[in-house]
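Journal club prep, shared notes

We agreed each person brings one worked example of a sequence with its structure written out as tokens. Mine is MHC class II antigen beta. I'm keeping it raw so we can talk through how to read the token line rather than staring at a rendered picture. Sequence first:
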Amino acid sequence: VFQFIVKHECHFINGTEKVRFLHRHFYNRQEFVTFDSDVGRFEGFTFLGEKWAQFWNSDPKIMENQRTAVDWLCRHNYPIVTPFSVERR
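Then the structure, token by token:
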């Protein structure tokens, strides 16, 4: 059985002051390409992942979308997530 998974993660440090966004791709339980908002670009971990990262990094529309995801995805959804994550500790 082959499995392809894409994960989007928002890591909140000190509320919304420091937010890290990760966009990760897995195939057969192996991560092959990821976008890290702290790095600001895609990074490949396999031969195919390097090719995908190279293609995505060269597209300005994709890069603008990924770089702004911290605001439109993470910070936008923080009030929704807060009652289930922060206030339960």
